[in-house]
């Protein structure tokens, strides 16, 4: 019988983390937890794409400093992002003198990079692994949807791509919350074709991974202080709650979605935040700080990704989703 | 002192492999080694992108069959490709009922996926891992360069994107060549801005990984029956030979480049083959068959990737390269 869940023998530690966000994100619900709030979305660069790359560099450097390590202590970077050919990660990797393993799981990338990072450390292959992902409202919108200048209306089911980057360092030594388990998810596609409705497209993959995780680990929602999905948003997280209830599992008050909680009600983000940076900045700020202080003891973190591209959409394809889960314990 | 090279304790085995190529590739130098040659580039699908997805599905299924395993035996798929948001891999993953770990290293993806796959097996995390990558001339050309209908002239330094997919199954049990080492590469950028000259852009990253590999493993070119780079092409492999000679290392007759050797002289591919499918189909046909028969005993396989995107290029960015290496022994 196949088991998609890894239980780490050595429980690699998250020894450092860093979050950097844009000004709008800096006015949202997690504003007191972020490490750096940019004054504007260009971050001193000529284009939004260059700004996103610089955010990745800043997040990685910040996480290494937060871990009280030097750049030369890092063995490898595991990173990815939403832009075509994951350029934010690849071009940022150029700035560092350590190897680079590019990954892609759309907005599930933070958990994917952390799961791979934990494997590299737990297996004894590397000592210190940096993990990172990012997204930027202006680069994602113009790549996936419409030119920014168009100022088009946004449907009620849409979400707002978070401008933010999150990074952490996973290590076999030092102090920090431990990664105890990881569950890799299957690609699930229930035929959603509305590119504005990411929550509905991703919820089934989230339910699939969550069910597999509970079954493989013989745990239930009550075993976790916090179950945090990535960016299902208001609608997607409602769908997830329904899908789980259909399977006899009730997600209670310890369940939340990073995207749903990200912005304040008056920030006009409709169904909430989205993008790789959404769950990445919440995890590497709020969740990490609560784990470190012991306010949270056991967190199930499961960001979801919509694996579409504009080409696939233009050719009439529906939107597959994927969701990877990790368990962190203080 | 950091070491970028992993030496696998259990030496995971490549128990199955499969290669599928287009008609032009089926007339090239490796025609007698491929498992499946398509009659045309559409492979019964409506678009080239859909054909590429079907090629990935076919390669994965073929490798599983070649390994004498069933789909239900596979624990996870590690795959990636050149298309935006690696859709060929992600949409193919939809067809299988196992988890999916998306990776991206441009044309270095076959080695990256195999290195990650070997880690997952060697570390005892999974039993059978499928690895795959693909490229398609018609999808890559119209994504990276010009519409196919334009029929524009190709400069002498250009290469021809291979239409092909290669897949293998890495396992802790069974019979097959062993993966004994893997070296993850750094991202290197020497400022090449000509998007037609991939060989020059990637050669420095290849030299970087090759030097690190030789140093970490205390080996020299003579220790390998075959040193095969991925798709440096005629020019890029000449540059690599020069760069290595500058460092006092002479690459001799046991060095070859998959891209340079791919097509026949009269096939008008200028500097040779390129694309993820180039080294992937050579490895999973010719190299695997020679390793299995014992004609090759120790192979150093190091595909290179150019990490550019059209957006990065349009914004004046140069082309970073990356190269991951694996060692396979019969």
Describe the model.
The structure is a homodimer of 330-residue chains. The first copy, chain A, is an alpha/beta fold and 330 residues long. Chain A has two domains: 167 residues, 3-Layer(aba) Sandwich (Peroxisomal Thiolase, Chain A, domain 1), CATH 3.40.47.40; 152 residues, 3-Layer(aba) Sandwich (Peroxisomal Thiolase, Chain A, domain 1), CATH 3.40.47. Chain A is built from nine helices and 16 strands. In chain A, the strands form four sheets. The first copy, chain A, has a six-stranded mixed sheet, sandwiched between helices. A six-stranded mixed sheet of chain A has the order 3-2-8-6-4-5, with helices on both faces. In chain A, helix 1 packs across helix 2 and helix 5 crosses helix 6. The radius of gyration of chain A is 18 Å and the shape is globular. At the A-B interface, helix 2, strand 5, helix 3 and helix 9 of A face helix 2, strand 5, helix 3 and helix 9 of B.
Task: Summarize the model shown.
Two copies of one chain form a homodimer. Chain A is built from nine helices and 16 strands.
Oligomer type: homodimer
Show unreliable segments of chain A: none
CATH architecture of the largest domain in chain A: 3-Layer(aba) Sandwich
* Biggest interface, CB < 8 A: A-B, 59 and 58 residues
Q: Which structural category fits the helices and strands of chain A?
A: alpha/beta
Integer tally of domains of chain A? 2
Number of strands of chain A: 16
What is the CATH homologous superfamily assignment of the largest domain in chain A?
A: Stage V sporulation protein AD
Residues in helices of chain A, as a percent range: 25-40%
Question: What distance separates the N and C termini of chain A?
Answer: 31 Å
Average pLDDT for all residues of chain A: 97
How can the largest sheet of chain A be summarized? 6 strands, mixed
CATH-assigned fold name of the largest domain in chain A: Peroxisomal Thiolase, Chain A, domain 1
Strand order of the largest sheet of chain A: 1-9-16-13-10-11
The CATH class assignment of the largest domain in chain A is: Alpha Beta
Helical stretch tally of chain A: 9
N to C succession of SSEs of chain A: EEEHEHEHEHEEEHEHEHEHEEHEE
Radius of gyration of chain A: 18 Å
User: What is the general shape of chain A?
Assistant: globular
